[in-house]
Automatic annotation (TrEMBL):
Listed InterPro entries: HDAC_classIV (IPR044150), HDACs (IPR000286), His_deacetylse_dom (IPR023801), His_deacetylse_dom_sf (IPR037138), Ureohydrolase_dom_sf (IPR023696)
UniProt organism field: Mucilaginibacter gynuensis
Family, as annotated: Belongs to the histone deacetylase family.
Keywords: Hydrolase
All copies of domain Histone deacetylase, residue ranges: 22-290
UniProt name for this protein: Histone deacetylase
Pfam families xrefs: Hist_deacetyl (PF00850)
Length: 300
């Protein structure tokens, strides 16, 4: 069964006037339910994450400032959000949903988190709508519990996974792979194990051909026993923050290829949704829903 982490807090942690980026988190499961792709049985609501597990990934001082709402005004501005206890609760539930998704992926091959993909959060900073790095937390959870020996993080969001790269820069058991817009946020890039920056206006053909040539070789070389996939749809030509030019069909072909590679190599995969900022919310929701549909077709 396809299991999907979702909680209403994903969609409503912000005051009025800041909610547009969050609307997709309630619309995605609603659309999948409406189309009959999933039922309520596919959805699960994660509990908050234990502090001990957060500290396997994030600096203790940073976490305590976040938890206690004592970040400086500059640090809060860097996150892009007005800080609140409810927003922090949202982040720790997202991280727990990604960890729970790992267990479901071991059982079913694939699992999703409607939110997540908070890849700009480093060990001691929040940035770009990311406070805690859900996939990094989950990767360290798997390693610390001896559930896996080699992890591949595939980050195909339009923005570099700078926080993820920084967290695992000295961890040989985690290979970080990021494709992203060369001229996009974050403007100070970290160094992933493999970075592929694309020029502005890169379209389906160049993006997909690069992925087709790179990912199978990478899996063969690294031989991961678990994969995290960050499937941001801010690669779309319609995205107001993206600068790349993928079509919706190209974005779906991207997802299908990644998920097919996981399936045919018998590697469990946890998928977090990442970014999407097209002005028309329908473009965002449909592209994200296509990722779920691809997984349902390939794995079930």
């Amino acid at each position: 069964m396809l299991k999907i982490a979702y909680d209403p807090i994903y969609a409503h942690p912000l005051p009025e006037g800041h909610r547009f980026p969050m609307l997709k988190y309630e619309l995605i499961p609603a659309q999948l339910l409406h189309e009959g792709v999933i039922t309520e049985d596919n959805l699960f609501s994660p509990e908050p994450l234990d502090e001990e597990i957060i500290l396997w990934t994030h600096d203790k001082h940073y976490w305590e400032q976040l938890r206690d709402q004592t970040l400086s005004a500059k640090e809060i501005r860097r996150t892009g959000f007005p800080l609140s206890p409810k927003l922090v609760e949202r982040e720790i539930r997202i991280a727990k949903g990604t960890i729970d998704g790992c267990h479901y992926a071991f059982e079913h091959g694939v699992a999703f988190n409607v939110a997540g993909g908070t890849h700009h959060a480093g060990s001691n900073w929040g940035e770009g709508f990311c406070l805690l790095n859900d996939q990094a937390i989950a990767a360290n959870y798997l390693l610390n519990n001896n559930l896996t020996k080699s992890i591949l993080i595939i980050d195909l969001d339009v923005h570099q996974g700078n926080g993820t790269a920084q967290i695992f820069e000295n961890e040989p058991r985690v290979f970080t792979f990021s494709t992203h817009g060369a001229n996009n946020f974050p403007y100070r890039k970290e160094i992933s194990d493999l970075d592929i920056p694309f020029p502005d206006d890169t379209g389906d053909e160049e993006f997909l051909n690069t992925l087709y040539q790179t990912l199978p070789k990478l899996i063969a070389q690294q031989q991961p026993d678990f994969i995290f996939y960050l499937s941001g749809v801010d690669v779309l030509a319609t995205d107001k923050l993206g600068k790349l030019s993928l079509t919706r069909e190209g974005c779906r072909a991207r997802d299908e290829f990644v998920l097919q590679q996981c399936h045919q190599n018998n590697i469990p995969v946890q998928v977090s949704m990442g970014g999407g900022y097209s002005p028309n919310i329908k473009d965002i929701v449909e592209a994200h829903c296509n990722t779920y549909k691809a997984a349902a077709d390939i794995f079930f």
